[in-house]
Amino acid sequence: MNEVKEANIRQKEYLDMNEYSEVKELEKRCIEFDKTSLKLELDYKMMCAKESNDVSSQKVNEFLYYVQDQLVAYIGISCFGALTLEVNGMVHPDYRRRGIFTRLFQSIKEEWINRGNPRMLLLSDGNSSSGQGFINSLKTTYEHTEYEMYYKNRVDIDNLVINVVLRKATNEDADEIKNQNTIYFNDEQSTNHDNEENLILPEDEEKRGMTIFLAEVDNEIVGKVNIQVSDSIGGIYGLGVIPIHRRKGYGRQILIEAIKKLQEKSCKEIMLQVSAQNKHALNLYLSCGFVEVSMMKYYQMDTN
Question: Fewer beta carbons under 10 A from the terminal one: N or C of the chain?
Answer without folding.
Answer: C
